[in-house]
Each structure stands twice: as structure tokens, then as C-alpha cells.
Design goal:
Blueprint: H1 2-14, E1 25-28, E2 35-40, E3 49-54, H2 57-72, H3 84-93, H4 101-118, H5 125-135, H6 141-150, H7 154-158, E4 165-166, E5 171-172
Antiparallel strand pairs: 1-2, 2-3, 4-5
Amino acid sequence: MLRSNRREEEARAKKPKRRINGEGSIYQRKSEGRWVGQFKDPAAPGNDIRYVYAKTQQEARKKLKDEMARAQAGLLEEAGTPTVGEYLGWMENVVSGEVAHRTYHNYLSQIRNHIFPALGKYLTPEQVKSLLVAAKGDRLEALYVLAVTCGLRQGELLGLRWEEVDLEARKLTVRRQVQRSRAAPV
């Protein structure tokens, strides 16, 4: 009987301890191998869950500890609604391991070259009207009209074919897009 108790104690000692309530949790994402730390922020409305990301478990543990200390001191901003810039910053933390390498870099390129420079800028109805008046009679007039009325991206606009346009049903289906390739032509 003594021998089985010793084995049970040894097994318990080897088993990782569970974190107690309020300590947060740390886990590794299988899809990308990155470590995630999360905790409930008691100061946030509805006890919002906060996340930190790291390459190693030790780094995640340190980041989690630091972030929890900042939360306890009331130094974290309200989780609420992020700004567009903060939301787009999510790309580098979350999306990188979830999509193909080229897709990720295309996203970053689009954000850096088109979205960040235009934050806070938008076309007013008068500017849209001026654009459409200027495009009148241009061979790409239909392209401009679709761009401002449907919000299609450049690659989607350039990938459209007539069989994807149903004028009677007033419906447009985007099935493909044109992409620029960095590879040498074959």
C-alpha cells in the first residue's frame, strides 16, 4: 500500500499545476506554434479578456504578468471599440500564422500603402460626383462606377467578366481577382 501511495504522489508531482482563478492562462497555438497568454481584466466592463502573444512560453508568461500588473494598476485602456489603426495592428499579432505567407504580406502591403495613409480621409459625396463626372465617356467609366458604388478592390474589378454580371437581376458576382506576381514569367 505504501508503494502505490508513493507512485501516486510522484505522478501528481510530475503533472503540471493548474493555474488558480485570476492568474490567467497560457497556451500554445497548434496552427502556428505561437504562445498566447490571456486573462480577464477586472477593470474592463464585462470582464473583457485580454491577450498577449509571444514566441516562447517564458516570454508569454512574462508578458502576461506585466499586462496583468498594468491592469491592476488601472493603466490599460478600456477594451471597448478599437480604432481602425489598432484593429489593423491585429494583423501582425494574429493573422500572420493563420493565412498563407503571400496572403499575409499582401494584406500588410495593402494596409501600409493604402489604408494607413488614408486613415481619416474619405471621399465626400461631392468628390464622388466629381470623379464620376470626370470619368464620363472614359473607357474605364464602368470600372470607376463599380469601385465607388460597390466598394470592390482593384484586383476584383480587373478580374470581372461579363458572365458574372446579371443586368436583369441587377446582380454582380465576384469569382476571381487579378494579382500581380513577383515571380519571373514562365
